[in-house]
Write a sequence for this structure.
C-alpha cells in the first residue's frame, strides 16, 4: 500500500485542516530507553519535523504544537535552559527548511517573557516566512490558554479613545478571536495528546471549543507517521455536530 493511502483516499472534508498537538512523554520516553531527559526532548524536537512533513503529505494545512507552556518554567533550571537552547537551535534550522518547503512559521504565546535573543529569532523566522503558503506551522512557546485570554482582554480593554475600552455591548466572539494570539488561525479540528494523560493542560482553551480530541499512550518521540495516520483516520470516522442535532 502506498504511503498514507488510506488518508489520501478520504474525501478532502474528512481531513482535519488544523491539527494541534500536546507533545507529551519526552521524559518517559528517555527513561524507557535509558537515555537522559535532554535526549528525550531532542528526539521530541526531531519528531516535530517528521510530523510536519507527514501532515503536509496528508493534506492538513495547519499544525500547532505545544512546545513550552507558561507552567513549564517550574521545571529545573537545567531542563528549562536545555529546552530554550533546543528551541533556538530548531528555530534556526526551521528557518532554512521552512523557506525551502514554503512553510509559514508562527509563534503564539507571551513573547515578552522570553530572552531577547530567542524573541529576536522568533520575529526573524516569522518575518522570513510570512508570505509562504504551502503550510502553516505554529509553535506555542511560553503559551498558556488562560494567559492568552488575559492578554486578549487587556488588548480589548485598551482599545477605544480615550483608552476607555470599546463599549461592552460591541464585544462579540469575533472581537475576542481577533485579540487572541491565534487571530490568523482557524480553530483546531483535531487535538492530539500523546503520553497517556487525559487533559488539556491550558492549551488553546477558547479555540478547542468544538475540536475532536484524540489521546494516545504513545510517547511523543515515538508518535510517528503511522500513529498520525491512525489519529486522522479516527477523526475521519467521527460525526461533528457543533452542538447541533444528530442527523
Ligand atoms: C513534554 O515532555 C514535552 C515538553 C515539556 C515540551 C516539548 C518540547 C519539545 C518537543 C522540545 C522542543 C521543541 C521544539 C519544537 C524544538 P515531558 O518532559 O513532559 O515528558 P514526561 O511527561 O514523560 O516527563
Amino acid at each position: 500500500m502506498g504511503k498514507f493511502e488510506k488518508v489520501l483516499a478520504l474525501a478532502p472534508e474528512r481531513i482535519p485542516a488544523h491539527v494541534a498537538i500536546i507533545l507529551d512523554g519526552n521524559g518517559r520516553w528517555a527513561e524507557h530507553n535509558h537515555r537522559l531527559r535532554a535526549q528525550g526532548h531532542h528526539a521530541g524536537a526531531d519528531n516535530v519535523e517528521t510530523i510536519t512533513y507527514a501532515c503536509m503529505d496528508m493534506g492538513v494545512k495547519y499544525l500547532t504544537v505545544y512546545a513550552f507552556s507558561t507552567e513549564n518554567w517550574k521545571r529545573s533550571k537545567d531542563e528549562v535552559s536545555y529546552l530554550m537552547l533546543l528551541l533556538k537551535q530548531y528555530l534556526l534550522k526551521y528557518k532554512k527548511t521552512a523557506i525551502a518547503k514554503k512553510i509559514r512559521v508562527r509563534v503564539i504565546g507571551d513573547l515578552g517573557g522570553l530572552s531577547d535573543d530567542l524573541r529576536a529569532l522568533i520575529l526573524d523566522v516569522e518575518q522570513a516566512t510570512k508570505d509562504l503558503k504551502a503550510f502553516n506551522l505554529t509553535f506555542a512557546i511560553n503559551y498558556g490558554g488562560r494567559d492568552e485570554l488575559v492578554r486578549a482582554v487587556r488588548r480589548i480593554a485598551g482599545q477605544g479613545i480615550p483608552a476607555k475600552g470599546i463599549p461592552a455591548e460591541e464585544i462579540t466572539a469575533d472581537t475576542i478571536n481577533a485579540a487572541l494570539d491565534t487571530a490568523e488561525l482557524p480553530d483546531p479540528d483535531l487535538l492530539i495528546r500523546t503520553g497517556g494523560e487525559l487533559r488539556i493542560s491550558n492549551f488553546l482553551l477558547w479555540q478547542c471549543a468544538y475540536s475532536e480530541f484524540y489521546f494516545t499512550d504513545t510517547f511523543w518521540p515515538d508518535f510517528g507517521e503511522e500513529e498520525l495516520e491512525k489519529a486522522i483516520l479516527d477523526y475521519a470516522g467521527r460525526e461533528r455536530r457543533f452542538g447541533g442535532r444528530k442527523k
